[in-house]
Amino acid sequence: MKPKFMRKLWLLFCISVFALGGCAASSAVDQAKNENKKDSSSASKEGDTVKVGILHSLSGTMAISEVSLRDAELMAIEQINASGGLLGKKIEPVVEDGASDWPTFAEKAKKLLQKDRVATIFGGWTSASRKAMLPVVEQNNGLLWYPVQYEGMESSPNIFYTGATTNQQIVPAVSWLLKNRGKTFFLLGSDYVFPRTANKIIKAQLKDEGGQVIGEEYTPLGHTDYSTIISKIKQVKPAVVFNTLNGDSNVAFFKQLKDAGITPKDVTVMSVSIAEEEIRGIGPDVLAGHLAVWNYFQTTDTPENKAFVQKYKQKYGQDRVTDDPIEAAYTAVHLWAEAVKKAGSFDVDQVKKAAAGLEYKAPEGTVKIDGETQHLWKTVRIGEIQADGQFKELWNSGQPVKPDPYLKSYPWAKGLSE
Amino acid sequence: MVNQRWGYWLFFAALFLAPFYLTEFRLSLLGKFLCLAIVAVGISLIWGYTGILSLGHGVYFGLGAYCMAMYLKLEASRGHLPDFMEWSGVRELPWFWKPFSYPMVAIAAAIALPTLLAALLSYFTFKNRIKGVYFSLLSQAVVVVLVTLFIGKQEWTGGTNGLTNFSTVFGFSLSSPLTQIVLYWLTTICLALIFVAARRLTSGRLGKVLIAIRDAENRVRFLGFNPTVYKVFVYSLSAAFAGVAGALFVLQVGLISPEMMGIIPSIEMVLWVAVGGRHSLMGAIVGAIVMNTAKSFLSENYPDLWLLLLGALFVVVVLFVPKGLAGIYESLVAVRIKAKRGHEREARVDVS
Q: Residue A192 gets which letter from DSSP?
């Protein structure tokens, strides 16, 4: 009994030594970074570096999307550092893993603000993660840059929203579809806050602008069997399927749609969560001809974008693509840097003040921070997916659209926000 | 065993004094872990002592948390509708939300609702002598049903975003360090009380019956006991613990969403107890604290690798220390006692 137990203890010890050794070796780079962190932690803002937090899901279901945002943010930070840093200081990123788990986002945001004393945080993807971080950044008077399109109805004084709100994505897309594709809509979404809220808005808008909803379906996240929903679509024959499905479900839905013999000519599918990165995963062959609405495509024709795409591919590999959230994350870092320069300080209140009305030539074109809502003025773009996985722009709003997260300027939306 | 009692006193004293030696951030983490440790005590009671493996304790935790969160949300809304209801098109506060504006009702509900649900579920399953894997599966089904319900009824529950962005509790600001420390102490006291209660319970006659049910339910029945009553009682009790834990959790973390009552958190709860040692109440507490500390520590230091490391830790424990941390401790004590007895014997030999 005793020798056996001792042997086990010994084995346990060996394994833990191995495990520790293994992780020490394989994360030598990480550790080097950590040591840098520790060296300067006491100096934080006073030394020659300034810390910023990067908080995305590097593990769990959201990692597939969020890792590229981290990459884009790190690239922007590298660029700023290469050109001399900010106010004479180098930016030092502190990367944390939100692990696709909302309390973890709150915990890590707290850690970044209280322990690392970062000047700002770039992070989040899902609305739930943002809602989890919101009270933390407000209570600690921190700063958060949130780079993904979302369902609106929010405007925190401590958050800058660099993705689209509904009136810069969904609302113009519905108007365009009514004009160009038809009046009958089938709403299909994953079962969470964004699709449900988006569809409420779409229904109110259609009622006002003369469209008709002839089907509304929600499936759980990760759902993969769409045969019953597709036969419903076949039955009611909508002109448009407005798709707010998220993640893997899109793969199943589009494959099964194609297998059922429904082509983009029969039914247009307009998606709001499918960008270049997702097209790579789903396969351009099943998506070609369908539409998506964003503020940026990799093919967007601006000099800033050419440089951005080239840099990104050079740094992370030729097979990587850029897309709307990646661009918004990249832009967020530069916007913050511009605001810091204008304010001449890293102080949150001063940066916020300086950020109001700030204009920046982003890869998507000129964007402007709206001081009142802390959202961006953004150009809306509708694109058709091509066989090569890129978008062909069919329409754009011509100029940046003023953000209106609560849809106050739309009379039909009155019942939604009051 | 006098030694052991001292150990417990020392353990809880160390926890109680934590605000004096931990930073604000670490303290808030520890507070969160202690809430989870309360759940672990309940799971140890039903799993380690009674042999009921519940893979659905997230539900009771979540219900307790939601009850508390509803009160906090109403207080934060200051007489208006909660924000998510406004944009979901709800005009008036639903009737079942109204009682939650009274904190005492919310606290009572945070304990009563999980207990009731657990009693209902366990009464019908145990009465029909459904046990083992079938009960575990059933408990998972309850998780799926409830999570789907909470996500689907976005206008009443906040959907996947859950309830968040609270400001005050009983008029005290939740963000002030003092409130956080008081809440931490409250959690420590709750944990200590629950631990003592559970120990009293298991060291008495009831504990013997529970263990007997675990080892040979039919024999217990033939001896004239009705196992159903005992099982329903202990299962409901552990749900009540989870409800208390949920309410304390929301106060400190400031957030509850359906995701946190889902299948993965429910299984995680069982894992803490497995790591700590399911047959030991203290083991369960230590397991919950150790595993969550490891999770925080590893993910802070190895953002890219921590999941693998955490997984390796589980595998190691399951393979080499099947009785968990408590098992290691007991073996060490056994070795020492043996050695001591050996000495005593030798001493006696010397004298004679």
A: S
> Cβ of B159 and A139 within 8 Å?
no
Range list of H helices, A216-302: 227-236, 249-259, 276-282, 284-287
User: What three-state secondary structure class fits A106?
Assistant: helix
pLDDT tier for residue B305 given thresholds of 50, 70 and 90: confident
Higher pLDDT residue, B257 or A24?
Answer: B257
How many domains are contained in chain B?
A: 1
pLDDT in tens, A242-279: 999 987 788 899 999 999 999 999 999 999 999 999 89
Range of the domain at A84: 25-164+301-377
A335 and A399 part of one domain: no
Task: Give the amino acid at B330.
Answer: E
Per the structure, the count of domains in chain A is 2
Amino acid of residue B187: T
Chain A and chain B share a number of CB contacts under 8 A equal to: 134
Task: End-to-end CA distance of chain B: give it in Å, rounded.
Answer: 29
Q: Indicate whether B8 belongs to any domain.
A: yes
For residue A391, what is the DSSP state?
E
List chain B residues with CB under 8 Å of A216: none
Contact check, Cβ <8 Å, A131/B159: no
Among A18-32, A64-78, B77-91, name the one with the lowest average pLDDT: A18-32
Enter the DSSP assignment of A375: B
A23: pLDDT strictly greater than 80: no
Question: Which carries the bigger pLDDT value, residue B40 or residue A64?
Answer: B40
Chain-chain contact of B300 with A111 (C-beta, under 8 angstroms): yes
pLDDT at position B154: 86
- Tally of CB atoms within 10 A around B217: 20
- With beta carbons less than 8 A apart as the criterion, state whether B277 and B323 touch: yes
For B66, the domain range is 2-320
Q: Is residue A125 domain-shared with residue A230, that is, in the same domain?
A: no
Chain A residue with minimum CA distance to B76: A135
pLDDT tens digit sequence for A161-190 = 999 999 999 999 999 999 999 999 999 998
CA B207 to chain centre: 19
> Is residue B339 one of the residues assigned to a domain?
no
pLDDT band at A4 (very low <50, low <70, confident <90, very high): low
Q: What's the ipTM?
A: 0.82
Residues A286 and A403 in one domain: yes
Q: Do A102 and B162 touch (CB under 8 A)?
A: yes
Test B304 with A11 for CB contact under 8 angstroms: no
For position A339, which CATH number holds? 3.40.50.2300
CA distance A24 to chain B (A): 9
Choice among A77-91, A183-197, A361-375 with the minimum mean pLDDT: A183-197
User: Is residue A373 located within the same domain as residue A237?
Assistant: no
Q: Which residue of B has its CA nearest to A192?
A: B160
* Euclidean distance between CA atoms A58 and A33, whole angstroms: 17
Closest-approach residue (CA) in chain A for B148: A220
Which residue among A11, A99, A418 sits closest to B320, beta carbon to beta carbon?
A11
How far apart CA B140 and CA B211 sit, in angstroms, is 24
